[in-house]
Design brief:
The protein folds into three domains: 176 residues, Four Helix Bundle (Hemerythrin (Met), subunit A); 77 residues, Orthogonal Bundle (Helix Hairpins); 154 residues, Heat Shock Protein 90 (2-Layer Sandwich), CATH 3.30.565. The chain contains twelve helices and seven strands. 21% of the residues are buried.
Length: 470
């Protein structure tokens, strides 16, 4: 079900509940108003009965025919009111009580002509009149009391119904909202994980969301984007490989041709001057040939390391200890070059799973490059820190050397690219780049000409989610 449909349906259910509650409230209000109107009429009837009793009392005291006329007039009004209220009285007190009321009113009216002659009423007639009047008054008071009780009952029921409805809506909202929210948040969490993975250069595909709602469409679109980015990255890498292949070919030709030319020249000179050379000079010629052959061997070894890195043997390691060990390896080089050092190696960093030998190789290469880029008195700074909430660890190697020209920054990891001139093979950073990528990490460079260069190696921590998925 689509999110829009779910929201509309949820809103419709809430509106329907509100309408039902409003309908019941309106119904109860009408009942209350009807009851109140009936109570007012019952009050009027009770007033008529009270006035009848008052006229009755005056009649017995004065035997005034005018009081008798008032009684008969009010009795007629009472009959009319009782007749108009028949349904409500029957519902409130029952048909038998209504019939008894009508009978009492009739009996009360019949008694007066018997007692209302020119003579005062006898004691028996007076007693019957008083008894009938008392019953009428008690009935009206009972009727008013019952109707008021019914009004209070309706109000209580309506109040309880409103409270129950409120809690029902609240509980349904509390119960249903987390379900829909959890579905949306879980899907968004997957998308967030994928986007983080994409930002780190990994184009993993996340499990598609069932259904045909907006979240499923977004996940499919993100997966499609991830696949497209993966394809584009492969195309870009292929293009870079082709470009690097040209540099590689030129570099191999240059690095091998020079020592071969030197060997050829040494051999020709040795051949031409062989008779004039003593044993020592002949050994010197052979030593030169050996040196040039060693140069070719080093180029081939570096080339093999670049093209086919050795299988890594990864173990849990502390980045702080890796850096300290590396600094011990290059300490003599730092002292000879008169380079100051600044280390920022905090405790408690998350562990990493690495091939220590390969990471030492990367760090030694970066530090060696930094030393060679600085004059005596330069400053080498090495710092480690946790990033991405402890999901990765960064190692930064910063120098105060001459820096790298902006036009060269994009080529520093290309094979056989070097800014050192004679003596640099241009394979160190390429090999380091391959090692770091093989560890699912990244390496980046920042530089400003004349101010220095910083290389930052990022390695996934053992506790990171991305590493756990491997």
């Amino acid at each position: 079900m689509k999110i829009k449909t779910g929201i509309v349906l949820s809103g419709f259910v809430n509106v329907a509940l509100i309408v039902v509650i409003a309908a019941f409230a309106y119904h109860d209000l009408n009942r209350i108003l009807t009851k109140l109107a009936f109570v007012e009429i019952a009050d009027d009837l009770n007033t008529l009965f009270l006035e009848m009793r008052l006229s009755e009392k005056n009649y017995f005291l004065s035997n005034d025919p005018g009081e008798l006329a008032d009684i008969k007039e009010r009795l007629a009004s009472a009959k009319q009111v009782v007749g108009s209220m028949r349904g409500d009285i029957v519902r409130a007190t029952g048909a038998a009580n209504y019939a008894e009321l009508v009978e009492d009113i009739g009996e009360y009216g019949k008694t007066f002509p018997e007692a209302g002659q020119d003579r005062p009423p006898d004691a028996d007639a007076e007693a019957r009149i008083r008894s009938a009047g008392k019953k009428l008054r008690e009935f009206s008071e009972t009727l008013i009391r019952l109707e008021r009780k019914e009004v209070h009952r309706i109000i209580d029921n309506s109040t309880n119904g409103m409270l129950l409805s409120f809690w029902a809506i609240l509980l349904s909202t509390v119960a249903l909202s987390p379900v829909s929210s959890r579905r949306i948040l879980n899907a968004l969490k997957k998308i967030e994980t994928l986007t983080k993975s994409i930002s780190q250069g990994r184009f993993d595909k996340i499990e598609e969301h069932p259904g045909n709602n907006e979240i499923a469409s977004v996940i499919r679109a993100v997966n499609s984007m991830s696949q497209e980015l993966r394809n584009r990255e492969e195309e870009l890498l292929q293009t870079k490989k082709l470009a690097s292949l040209g540099i590689l070919t030129a570099g191999v030709a240059h690095e091998i041709t020079n020592p071969l030319n030197n060997i050829s020249m040494i051999a020709q000179t040795f051949e031409q001057s062989y008779g004039d050379l003593d044993e020592t000079m002949r050994l010197e010629f052979m030593k030169k040939v050996e040196n040039e052959a060693e140069r070719i061997k080093n180029v081939v070894i570096n080339l093999l390391d670049f093209s086919k890195p050795k299988q890594s043997q990864r173990l849990t390691a502390d980045v702080r200890e890796l850096v300290e060990h590396t600094m011990a390896l290059v300490r003599n080089m730092l002292d000879v070059s008169a380079i100051d050092t600044a280390l920022d190696l905090p405790q408690g960093l998350p562990p990493v799973l690495v091939d220590e030998h390969q990471i030492h190789q990367v760090l030694v290469n970066l530090i060696t490059n930094a030393i060679q880029a600085m004059a005596p008195g330069g400053r080498l700074s090495v710092a480690v820190r946790a990033v991405s909430g402890g999901a990765a660890v960064e190692i930064e190697v910063r120098d105060t050397g001459k820096g790298i020209a902006p036009e060269h920054l994009s080529h520093v990891f290309d094979p056989f690219f070097s800014t050192k001139g004679v003596g640099g093979t241009g394979l160190g950073l390429s090999i380091s780049y391959g090692i770091v990528k093989n560890h699912h990490g990244s390496i980046r460079v920042e530089s400003e000409a004349g101010k220095g260069t910083a290389f930052t190696v990022t390695l996934p921590a053992i506790t990171s989610q991305n590493f756990a998925e491997e």
